[in-house]
Amino acid sequence: MDISVRQLVAFLTVANLRSFTATAKVMHLTQSGVSALIRELEERSGVKLFDRTSHSVRLSRAGEDFLPYAQRAVEHVRAAERCTADLRDHRAGQVRVAGAPLIACTLLPQMMSAFAIAHPTVRVQLVDVPMSELQTMVGRSDVDLGLGPERGFDADVSGAPLFTTPVSVICPPGHRFASRVATWCEVRDEPVIVVGQEMIDHIAFEFGGARFTVALVVNHISTALGLAAVGRGVVLAGPFIAQLASAYGLVICPLGEPVLNRKMMVYQHGTRALSPAAEVFKRFMMQFVRDNDPNAVATSAEAPSQAAVRHAVPARRRRTSGRPAAAAPSMSCP
Question: Do the beta carbons of residue 262 and residue 165 sit within 8 Å?
Fold first, then answer.
């Protein structure tokens, strides 16, 4: 049985107005057109839905039983139409975003909060994952978008730069690095608390296999910062986590000679189009970092500004694609 929405609307309108003539006017049809819709509905349903006389039309017993079902069917169709219109116009929808550890607990919640104010009917769900799993989730379409540091792209994954952040030292305010710009040669002999071994591997790769003293390898940035706060080592990360670091009583100290700028990326499936809601959230994030510098750090006498070190030490040219660059020469340290 093939019943159309138009037939159901004609049935409900006739039942409400009890007139084919009035229904025709409301639906902008001829009276014969309304009669044809009702006749087709009765033929396809196999029951007589109206009792007609020359002066009146009213629901039959079968029509009365059918009425609530027709009402619910039309309501569901109208709701589906509203939903698709909201999705098209970015007024509703759901976005699943995977965030690597550092960005998932710092910048991403700020962007989600601002987005919720601008688009209150679009729901953003955050999944915090290790960077080693982020592209896998994007490639499997478990999430719409992924945010994390630049890596070579997996199959079926593409990406675009979100912002660039200089790798910095995070340490207590009394640390020897706190009052000046540190160098990578100094960091080489400093105990470093690493969030995931793959992070230190990628930093070392940038400098042609530079060696680091890894004190501890942990899974969460909160653990690393807690350990740094009690003097177990320093943490290497971008200044965009300054607010979180300050909660542990830590300061952000620039690294120079050379400055290593790392790209934070937005990853998405390489061949599947984003949903309208995911597309508008991606555009929102791009605009958010243009309007709000993620690396802005309140400077103090104890922590030189990132701007100062960028002017003092020329930044090394970074790669612009998602492919690994050729290894740079090793650092020459005394």
Answer: yes
Question: What CA dihedral angle connects 14, 17, 22 and 25, to 10 degrees?
Answer: -70
| CATH label of the domain that carries residue 149 | 3.40.190.290
Q: Look at 5-14, 240-249, 314-323 and tell me which has the smallest mean pLDDT.
A: 314-323
Instruction: Transcribe 170-186 into DSSP letters.
Output: EE-TTSTTTTS-EEHHH
From residue 130, how far is each of 102, 199, 317, 319 by CA, in Å? 10, 10, 27, 23
Tokens 């177990």 belong to 232
Q: Report residue 211's pLDDT band, with 50, 70 and 90 as the boundaries.
A: low
Q: Which residue, 126, 146, 125, 149, is CA-closest to 137? A: 146
Locate 68 and state its tokens.
């609530």
In a domain? residue 141: yes
> β-strands 168-171, 234-237: how paired?
antiparallel
Q: What is the pLDDT of residues 285-320, one digit of tens each?
A: 999 999 999 998 543 333 444 444 443 333 333 333
Q: What are phi and psi of 175, to 5 degrees?
A: -70, 155
Q: How far apart are CA 120 and CA 114, in angstroms?
A: 10
**Structure token pair of residue 271:** 């061949």
The answer to pTM > 0.70 is no
Residue 87 scores a pLDDT above 70:
no
User: Is there a domain that residue 287 lies in?
Assistant: yes
Structural domain includes residue 324? no
Q: How far apart are CA 29 and CA 10, in angstroms?
A: 10
Same domain, 254 and 297: yes
- Judged against a pLDDT cut of 90, whether residue 208 lies above it is answered with no
The answer to whether 101 and 195 have CB atoms below 8 angstroms apart is yes
Q: Dihedral sign for Cα 170, 235, 192, 174, please.
A: positive
Neighbouring CB atoms inside 10 A of 221's CB total: 24
189 and 107 both lie in a single domain: yes
Question: Do 184 and 250 share a domain, yes or no?
Answer: yes
Distance CA 203, CA 2 (A): 63
Whether residue 158 sits in one domain with residue 264: yes
Cβ atoms 286, 145 nearer than 8 A: no
